[in-house]
Each structure stands twice: as structure tokens, then as C-alpha cells.
Amino acid sequence: MKPVLSKQTLRNVFEGKATPLQKTLVEQWLEDPENQELYFQWLEEWECDNLQFIPDAASAYTRSLQIQPSAGNAPDTYPLNRPKRLYRWVAAAVLFLAMIGVYSLRDRLYYERYTTKFGEIRTVTLPDSSRVTLNANTLLEVPRFDVNPKVREVRLTGEAEFSVKHTADHRRFIVRTPDQLEVQVLGTEFTVYSRAKGSKVFLNKGRVQVRSLANQASAPLVIAPGDLVEVSKQGNFQVHHHQSATVHTAWKENRFVFENTPLSEIASQLNEQFGVHIIVADSALAQRTIGGTFKAQNADELLPILSDMLNMTVNQREGQPKTYQLTSAP
């Protein structure tokens, strides 16, 4: 049974009044990603009610060393003060570790996180009325505080389609990815893909500028509607013109569009979309291609179709419910 916590329990943690049992319950409660957003909301409320300061623990400890024993203390009782000094050391260490913990969580405090699970598609509306549709297995981070009057900036890991709202003050909209790709727009519709194997940007409407911060020698590139830009790990651009929007936005309707796509690439797409592990038995099978549009909400709906079309067998590994091995049919 999942632990249920009250706001007061978390306030006790923030104020350092929590019992060991309460701290354990909070740790278990935070293992559920759905509770983490609520945690930071309540933390923000508590911080607004309790303005914090950063104590100078080092100076405090130095002053404590200068405190002399009272006249009534006999020399042989003075060592009894040593545990107090030890307590100050422990208190300073705990405070220091707490400050490190807050610093390590600064991104979670500053950014609101929108996530999707495998097989899930989600649309969110940003504070500026821009809309973002997240593909499966995607993370979008949006600043909680509007501190930059010139730029709206978000961070993306995964794949998403952006419909950016133009603002009266002409604020730029920037998308950043883990491989230091920067996509900058004013008002447009585009799709950004950023996963382990690389990044790419497809422009549906308007104009965008892409720039790789990982390659300072690469000049910013402005692309037009229908352009697809693939970004290598070294930050180099490869542009493909006159691309079909259907291919790059079909995932919003749980559709896969293949155009002479090799099975190896199809397996990679299914792995990313549904969190499965597909093993292609040999290189010859991996190079077989297929074309067409297929709708599927999980791997089990698509694999039988591919099996018939590519003359192969699909075997689910025993004891591994999400692992499939593809082999050529005899």
C-alpha cells in the first residue's frame, strides 16, 4: 500500500521537526513520480511563508571556540563541554549537507516537469498559451518563474510537437535538448526529436533557427516549412527538403508511417515508443524494408502484421514479457 502524507508532515520535514518514521514515509512517498510535483508545490508554499537565510556555519563554529567556561566550572568538569562542541560540528555538517541537497535539486525547484510514459501521448498548454504535444517516453521542463522578459525557454528530452503562440512583445521561444541543440522561433509549428541516437527538427509552419552549441564552428541554420534537419553527435547539420508532415507527426494519432524503412529502424522506433526490447536475429533480416501506414497502441498490435509482411516469426522470450526476438521464417 502506498503511503499517504499530509501537508503538515512535509512541513515538519522542511522545518527539521520530522521523526525518523516520518522521514522514511516521505522517502517512500517520493518514489512515486506523481507525488514529486506536489512535493515541490508544498515546498514553494512553505518557503513563501518562511523566508530563509543561509547561516555562516564556519563563523558560528569559530565563535563557539572562543566561549570560555564560567567561573563556577572546575577544570575537571570543563571536558563536559566537549560533547556540545561535537554537537555543533554535527549540526554544521548536517546544515552543509542539506544545502548541498537543495543545490542538487535546484533544477527540480526551478522547472516544472511534464512527462509521458511508454505508449502515452499528452498535450499540455504552457503559460503563454503555446501548446506542446509530447510523444511517448518524453520529458519537457518549463521554468516555474517568468524571469526573462526577452526569452521563453524550455528543455526537451524525447519528442514533441510545438505550436508556439506569438506574443505582443515578440519574445523568442527557445527549445534546448541534452545534446546542446538550440531551436529558436517566434511563432510557428515544428517537431523536435532528441533521444540517445541523435536529434532532428521538422518544421511544419513558419520559420525556425537551429544552432548547435556543441559545435562552435557550425553556423546557425534557418529552415523553411517542409525541411527536416538531422543533427549528428558532433553538432553537424544535414538538411532534407520537401519532407511530408505526415511522416513526422503521425505518432500523434498512434500511427507509424514507413517508407521503405528497414526492420532495424522499425525495431528502434518500437523500443522508443513502447519500452520494449526487440532483437533482430540476423543482419539480412534487419535490412528487409517495408512501406505503409499502420496504427498501433502497443507492440503486440504491430508485430503480427510485420511478421506476415516480412515473412518472419516473432518469439516472446520466456520470463521477459517485453522482449521479442525476430527470426526469418523457415
UniProtKB/TrEMBL annotation:
Keyword Transmembrane helix listed: yes
TM stretches of this protein: 86-105
Ranges for domain Protein FecR C-terminal: 255-315
Residue intervals of the FecR protein domain: 113-209
Keyword DNA damage among UniProt keywords: no
Key words, A-Z: Membrane, Transmembrane, Transmembrane helix
One Pfam match: FecR_C
Protein name per UniProt: FecR family protein
Source organism: Larkinella bovis
